[in-house]
Specification:
Length: 150
């Protein structure tokens, strides 16, 4: 269920948002990042993803997010669950004077299919995985997905 701006602003101000992030990797080991056009994290490279709506199951949210973000028809079992993450931002999509708190369910997808990318990002690029952690324009929360052995 989509909320109007005022209701969604109240939610952001008073509760954490639950979302799904997608670590999309090609068979040659490159990862897909998009340059964000909206706050929070505007102007940074970030993995595709989206929030879970009220009364939406995790399976339905995953399928919708994958379809909307990268244009694929996948089920949750087609991805590897890589963990729960927390993201804390000082701002929000509406530029109000409060932050955004996300609880993020990270999933990894390996694909070489042609992707249909949405308009939430200025542009998309495939990055060498080893260079993601060194790139100052990749957001620190996106880098978290590439630390360790995940």
């Amino acid at each position: 269920m989509l909320l109007d701006k005022e209701a969604f602003s109240d939610v952001i101000k008073n509760t954490p948002l639950i979302s799904i992030d997608l670590v999309v990797e090609s068979s040659d080991g490159k990862v897909l990042l998009g340059k964000r056009i909206n706050e929070p994290a505007k102007g940074f490279w970030f993995v595709p993803g989206g929030r879970i709506f009220k009364d939406e199951s995790l399976d339905a949210a995953f399928e919708r997010t994958v379809k909307e973000e990268i244009g694929l028809d996948l089920k949750r079992e087609d991805a590897a669950f890589i963990g729960v993450y927390e993201h804390f931002y000082d701002n929000n999509v509406f530029d109000n004077k409060f932050g955004t708190h996300y609880i993020v369910l990270g999933h990894k997808i390996v694909t070489d299919e042609k992707l249909s990318l949405n308009n939430q990002h200025e542009k998309y690029e495939w990055f060498e995985k080893e260079l993601v952690l060194k790139n100052k324009d990749v957001h620190k929360y996106a880098k978290d997905y590439f630390k360790g052995n995940k």
